[in-house]
Automatic annotation (TrEMBL), chain A:
Domain of life: Bacteria
UniProt key word DNA damage: no
GO molecular function annotation: iron-sulfur cluster binding; metal ion binding
Gene3D superfamilies: Glutaredoxin (3.40.30.10)
Keyword Manganese applies: no
Residue ranges the record marks as coiled coil: none
The name this protein goes by in its record: 2Fe-2S ferredoxin
Lineage, broadest ranks: Bacteria, Bacillati, Bacillota, Clostridia, Natranaerobiales
InterPro entries: Thioredoxin-like_sf
Keywords annotated in UniProt: Iron, Iron-sulfur, Metal-binding
From TrEMBL, chain B:
Record's keyword terms, sorted: 4Fe-4S, Iron, Iron-sulfur, Metal-binding
UniProt family annotation: Belongs to the complex I 51 kDa subunit family.
Name listed for the protein in its UniProt record: NADH-quinone oxidoreductase subunit F
Ranges that cross the membrane: none
Biological classification of the source: Bacteria, Bacillati, Bacillota, Clostridia, Natranaerobiales
């Protein structure tokens, strides 16, 4: 560790340090991976890990990755929900690791829903 | 950069370590490995969480789900269900006492919901061994502000404006104390942190040091800068090994980052911090005794003035502050005095941490805004009496030399001046709840016994007076009290208070005098009728068998360790009062309510 020599140094250091407790901050933006028995069988763990990697690579810290149990749509596993602040939750089905960059880039970052993967959407739309 | 999808926080506090927290940590490591989760889930050992009787506590983030009383056998279920499958383990969650509803997040439990956590906000949330986590939470920002953005005087003014008052007991305004020492011409000056915490049963300062050591270090550096001290000491009891270890680790990390040591944050300010491990005598917590102990001399108080701010450590200007006081300082600097005064009352801003113990459902550490009533702490946070049918009769506030407040005084707010005016004191933050099964005479005797054994012996009234008082209390609880004993104790008590040198002697008679004020009848029962109404003083407890209720089942006779019970089968039994030692076993055994306290 090198010494911090100014207020700016401390601020910069803090930004980095925030990573260490990121997983403890529940965010307004959520990415929810279905991890029921069937989800796991369908490869949910791998999808989850790819999400983590991708978010890290892009240094996106305002979204929390969390997991949920079976939501009763087992035939469509892996299921991934994206719930952004103030918006309805969108559920994607049959998500493969290859789909992860699209979900992140289009939906999480740019707010555009990845329509071909959507299986659950609020009624109104 | 490390990235984990989940953090599992396990309390590694002394309290939890004495339950089986270390084994649980081990088990988690094992289970994570077994399930291939080591790279996804991070284990974090935190400090104190507060709700002791439900320890150990495990919190899983990002959901923030809290599990209580986790045993080794529960670990695999948490790992498999929650971490692997994303399903919560409901049976380990907190269940609301009244509604039976399960509460997944610890901050929604009554015990935590009503608290305001400033000093304890990092305790149980961050890893105390990681300076990065402390900094991520905004740590060392107050120090940076103080050093870079403010002039020295401005920092003092800010602390004066915050009206922060010493949490070590006396409530002296912290900023004013710093100003006094800062104005002294003599050099060098010293900054001392008082972490002696000698109250039996108090664990506030220890918990802060164990759970958030950097907050104390940061407060020390700021204080040192303000008064112009380049050396600081933390005096902590050698027996608090975990606190000592964490503190040393934190000091090392802060030095590596240039937040402690020479040329802090490139500002040219120097401050070195040393840990002094003391042998631990109650009187060493008194500030003049404390500085002597640091010098390597016997910890004995000396007359003041001169105050420590004029002549403290090695005769040089010294500020002594309590751990909790110092832990408030970084937040005041980081957020401003106005933010701090939003909490609490105008004359006592901020919060106070209490160690809630005794006959109350939820024991543990609670932090509330100043001005909260004792009743709210005991009933809303503490959940009321430990046994439904037992009425709470009093609360002892301020440790072994504190005051006993009867039930009808519980609406008093915890605030320095109001408590003083009511003839009590804030003290160090001990709150001991007593119910009808607590004998106030016995309680006072135990407090006085502790204090008496801790008297340094320098002044006669404290050394001899407390011994005389103890003798009187002992004979009263043995049924050998003499008429005039109560008056004699009042007289002795006043004399000790008025003629002792230091705070130990001046406060020693408090428990006795305050219980005499509101529970004189209970003393008289012991004295005149040789009866202990609470059934505690074993020499006075007399058991009897009500012949009409007794069916002669012989159960009591069989458990009596001294064969004091006689009687024919199916005939009423009888207790021989001369043989009975008052152990109470027969009362517990009898299913027919035939055994009663006489
Ligand atoms: C017998 C006795 C024991 C004391 N023990 C402690 C103690 O354990 N911790 C503490 O901070 N203050 C203790 N004090 C109070 C200190 O003398 C001093 O007032 C305090 O450390 C000042 O810090 P503060 O202004 O931050 O409260 C004790 C006082 C007396 C008379
Ligand atoms: S009052 Fe008691 S503890 Fe204090 S200096 Fe005198 S003898 Fe020692
Ligand atoms: S246990 Fe109760 S009922 Fe039985 S002999 Fe003893 S007093 Fe009587
Ligand atoms: S109180 Fe104990 S000693 Fe006395 S009669 Fe009952 S069992 Fe025997
Ligand atoms: S220390 Fe673990 S919860 Fe109390
Ligand atoms: S719960 Fe850990 S110390 Fe009380």
């Amino acid at each position: 560790m090198s010494k911090l020599k100014s207020l700016e140094d401390l601020k910069r250091y803090r930004e980095q340090a925030k990573e260490t407790i990121k997983a403890r901050k529940t965010n307004e933006n959520l990415l929810i991976v279905g991890m029921g028995t069937c989800g796991i069988a369908a490869g949910a763990r791998e999808v989850l890990n790819v999400f983590m990697e991708e978010l890290n690579k892009r240094e996106l810290s305002d979204i929390t990755v969390t997991q949920t149990g079976c939501i009763g749509m087992c035939e469509n596993e892996v299921l991934v929900g994206v719930k952004k602040q103030g918006e309805e939750r969108i559920t994607y089905g049959n998500v493969a690791p290859e789909d992860v960059p699209r979900i992140i880039n289009d939906h999480v970052v740019n707010g555009k829903i990845v329509n071909d993967l959507v299986i659950g959407k609020p009624q109104s739309k | 950069m490390e990235s984990y999808r989940s953090h599992v926080l396990i309390c590694g506090d002394t309290g939890c370590n004495s339950s089986d927290s270390p084994q649980i940590q081990e088990k988690f490591t094992e289970e994570l490995e077994k399930n291939g989760l080591t790279n996804e889930v991070k284990l974090i050992i935190t400090g104190y969480h507060g709700l002791c009787e439900l320890a150990p506590i495990v919190i899983v983030y990002p959901e923030g789900t809290s599990y209580f009383k986790v045993s080794q056998d529960d670990v695999s279920e948490i790992v498999e269900e929650h971490l692997l499958k994303g399903r919560t383990v409901d049976r380990l969650m907190y269940h609301d006492r009244d509604s039976e509803e399960k509460i997944p997040y610890y901050n929604e439990i009554d015990f935590y919901k009503q608290q305001e956590r400033i000093v304890l906000r990092n305790c149980g949330y961050i890893n105390p061994d990681s300076i990065n986590e402390y900094i991520a939470q905004g740590g060392y920002e107050g120090l940076a502000k103080a050093l870079v953005e403010f002039e020295r005087e401005e920092v003092t003014e800010e602390v004066i404006k915050s009206n922060l008052r010493g949490r070590g007991g006396a409530g002296f305004p912290t900023g004013e104390k710093w100003k006094l020492a800062g104005q002294e011409p003599a050099e060098p000056k010293y900054m001392v942190c008082n972490a002696d915490e000698g109250d039996p049963g108090a664990f506030i300062d220890r918990s802060i040091l164990e759970g958030d050591p950097h907050s104390v270090i940061e407060g020390m550096v700021i204080a040192g800068y303000v008064i112009g001290a380049e050396i600081g000491y933390v005096y902590v009891r050698a027996e608090c090994q975990l606190a000592v270890r964490r503190l040393r680790m934190a000091i090392e990390q802060a030095e590596q980052l240039g937040l402690l040591g020479e040329n802090i944050l490139g500002t040219g300010v120097n401050f070195t911090l040393k840990v002094v491990e003391g042998a631990g005598a109650f009187v060493c917590g008194e500030s003049t005794a404390l500085t002597r102990a640091i010098e390597g001399r016997r910890g004995m108080p000396r007359p003041t003035p001169p105050r420590s701010t004029e002549q403290g450590l090695w005769g040089k200007p010294t500020v002594v502050n309590n751990v909790e006081t110092l832990a408030c300082v970084p937040y005041i600097l980081a957020n401003g005095a106005d933010w701090f005064t939003n909490y609490g009352t105008p004359k006592s801003p901020g919060t106070k941490v209490f160690a809630l113990t005794g006959k109350v459902k939820n024991t543990g550490l609670v932090e509330v805004p100043m001005g909260t009533s004792i009743r709210d702490i005991v009933f809303d946070i503490g959940g009321g009496g430990i046994q439904q049918d037992n009425e709470i009769k009093a609360v002892q506030i301020g440790g072994p030399s504190g005051f006993c407040l009867p039930e009808d005084k519980l609406d008093l707010p915890v605030e320095f001046d109001t408590l003083d005016d009511a003839g009590a004191m804030m003290g160090s933050g001990g709150l001991v709840v007593m119910d009808e099964e607590t004998c106030v005479v016995n309680e006072s005797k135990l407090h006085l016994k502790f204090i008496q054994s801790e008297s340094c012996g320098k002044c006669t009234p404290c050394r001899e007076g407390t011994k005389r008082m103890l003798e009187i209390l002992e004979r009263i609880t043995e049924g050998k009290g003499r008429s005039g004993d109560i008056e004699l104790m009042k007289e002795l008590g006043d004399m000790i208070i008025n003629t002792s040198l230091c705070g130990l002697g001046k406060s020693a008679p408090n428990p006795v005098l305050s219980t005499l004020r509101c529970f004189e009848d209970e003393y008289k029962e012991h004295l005149e009728n040789e009866r202990c109404p609470a059934g505690v003083c074993s020499d006075l407890v007399k058991y009897q068998i009500v012949p009409d209720n007794c069916i002669g089942c012989t159960a009591c006779a069989r458990v009596c360790p001294v064969d004091a019970i006689s009687g024919e089968k199916k005939q009423p039994h009888e207790i021989d009062p001369d043989k009975c030692i008052g152990c109470g076993e027969c009362l517990k055994k009898c299913k027919f309510e035939a055994v009663v306290l006489g």
